[in-house]
Amino acid sequence: MRPYFNRLYFFTGLFLIFFIPALKLHAEGIKIFQSSKSENETKEIIEKVLVEIDGKRFKKHEETMGFSYLYKNRWTSPFKYAVYIGPIKTDSPETMVRIEGTQGDAFMLDHILSLNGLNKNYVSKSNEKLLNKKNHFIAQGMNIYAPWAAMIYNGFHSPRMTRRQTFSRFLFYIIADVFVIYAGGTNWFQEKFDANAYRGNIAAGLLLVRALGSIQTFNLTRGHNRIVELKYTFPYK
Q1: pTM above 0.90?
Q2: Which CATH number among 3.30.450, 3.40.50, 3.30.1370, 3.30.1380 corresponds to the domain 29-128?
Q3: Distance between CA 143 and CA 141 in Å, rounded?
Q4: Domain boundaries, the chain
């Protein structure tokens, strides 16, 4: 029975480390603003911006959760968002826009739509600057060495991640590395820790962490670089 429970502990640990933080990081940002345009004009501008940013990697949904329109990213998109458009009240001509997604992507879309003249209450900031591109080779190289370092690189001066997200993912990858090193070094909790004897287990665990990090790093980098190509400005010191 002991090997069974050891494996159970291991896979439970994997679930807690990999899946629960991933779910949290993918649905924590909400931005809401009143549009300066009519509902139809708002819809047209949002569609134009989404095509500009994300190409055809988004979909208009029929189930709108009580709103008039709903657009969500497809799984092939490097971004995570859901954009709702509808009247503030049923008898009001005023239009509201609600953006859901990761904190970074919700902030990014809110800012870009504001720069396109949609946010009625938007006030430009004096410290808005053009962003610099990030290098895929540097990002992936950092991910191979230490995934937490790649998160710092991708989070620096990028609207894709807030400081909170950057810190959360930084911490997540450190914990993941420590966990798989210990789990692998104890032959999945069956023996005393011996890094030399069970180095194959440790290598397999670290490879799994880096495979996950590689996907996240790739999407963060390509999404950031697309925003850079469009020359949108963001408030950074």
Answers
A1: no
A2: 3.30.1370
A3: 5
A4: 29-128, 131-231
